[in-house]
Q: What sequence folds into this?
DNA sequence: CCGATCATCATTATTGATAATTCATGGAGA
DNA sequence: TCTCCATGAATTATCAATAATGATGATCGG
């Protein structure tokens, strides 16, 4: 966005200009982001009721944006809305989490294969930068920011495949998997371990060998949840 | 101010606008259903702009429900909303359709495996009834109603698996696949053929053999799209 | 003639107020 | 005591109107 502003304002473009624009008019997305964060982190327990007007008062906006945010959360699978009865934080199950991991694995591995021929050095550099950012966040133990950085990394690679219709599905998988991993941290890996897995993916991408890329992705994705097997037992159309 | 509304509605009303008129009652979901139908059937071509106030005027409700419907359509991947710039019918690609078929296959096959132990005779009868309904619709050549009946059939089976978090993903796959199949009917099977495939699924379910069930599901699902071979050309996580 | 600046317009985003729906509670009657 | 119905509170759903935003084309200075 900054580039387009710079294009339309060729005159001065003072550096402070970017900071002037604050959350004006983005109330809806802000509410959505905050609620999503609280749910993924487990601060809002499953079954918790979310009242539209109550949230609106708390946030300082009207019912409309809150309503919109709750709707998006429902599409994410994080809340359930029941007619005129109310909105509640949804419940999770390990079985679903495992299946979601398998789906995510399938989507990302296929996307990586499609993206492999069109990878550019600049993209690889971009990915490397994101890994560094992730490690930085890992040092600060900012769990939620890490999940976002992780999502960004994987989405950056995924987008190269040119399958935009699958992106919302993948995002959904990210959200629910991360939520499950955070709220049930039975034997989770350390954040730094996760970052190192990304490095091996990047190395495989640099190498350019299809099999190595797919295998590193599989390993990394399945490592998020304990129960998920790397083989994706009995799944796809592949006989 | 009616004059202001009239001023904002372009004089050139698209030909499909008359079809969004709906009976009465629950406006919000009705608008969503109508628009979804028109898009899946291809009456609304890709790239077509959808203006909230224009739709509201055509349907006879306010902007809110229409807005909500457009949001749901975006989550379904049928439209794209761009900031303050407008809403447009999304575009499809065969590559995405093939990948969606693979995903759907994976989800349903896994779900069927989970559901197999808990199948009841009444559920099987229910499925049989739905097949008959589908054949009835096939005789009337009501394509969209058939897609809905097909969805109902598969969802009925899927729900037995007890993986509610995956249901929206599956619905998404249904919608986009059906849309692609209808709007690009290059070498589609006849509706009756599709119904017979369901019969073979039901027979396999009655038999209770896991492999037979999974295989019949695979065949049926992959037959929806031409490009998707049962072998998973460019397909499965299995290399 | 070309590019930057500005006004205009179509459109979405938000607001405040009102209607519709559901659920629980309490009281009347058998 | 138990059942059933009215009633009220709580909540979502809808509406009409206003504000904010980004694109488009006109205007003005080089």
A:
């Amino acid at each position: 966005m900054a580039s387009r502003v710079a294009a339309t304002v060729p005159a001065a473009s003072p550096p402070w200009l970017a900071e002037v624009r604050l959350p004006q008019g983005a109330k809806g997305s802000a509410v959505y982001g905050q609620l999503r964060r609280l749910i993924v982190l487990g601060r809002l327990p499953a079954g918790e009721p979310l009242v539209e007007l109550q949230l609106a008062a708390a946030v300082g906006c009207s019912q409309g944006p809150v309503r919109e945010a709750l709707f998006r959360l429902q599409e994410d699978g994080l809340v359930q809305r029941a007619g005129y009865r109310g909105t509640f934080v949804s419940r999770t199950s390990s079985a679903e989490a495992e299946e979601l991991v398998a789906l995510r694995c399938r989507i990302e591995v296929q996307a990586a294969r499609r993206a492999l021929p069109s990878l550019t050095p600049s993209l690889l550099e971009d990915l490397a930068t994101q890994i560094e950012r992730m490690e930085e966040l890992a040092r600060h133990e900012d769990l939620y920011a890490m999940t976002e950085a992780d999502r960004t990394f994987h989405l950056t690679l995924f987008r190269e495949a040119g399958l935009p219709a699958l992106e919302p599905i993948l995002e959904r998988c990210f959200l629910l998997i991360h939520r499950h991993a955070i709220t049930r941290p039975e034997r989770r890996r350390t954040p730094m371990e996760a970052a190192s897995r990304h490095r091996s993916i990047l190395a495989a991408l640099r190498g350019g060998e299809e099999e190595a890329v797919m295998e590193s992705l599989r390993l990394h994705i399945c490592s998020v949840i304990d129960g998920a097997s790397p083989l994706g037992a009995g799944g796809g159309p592949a006989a």
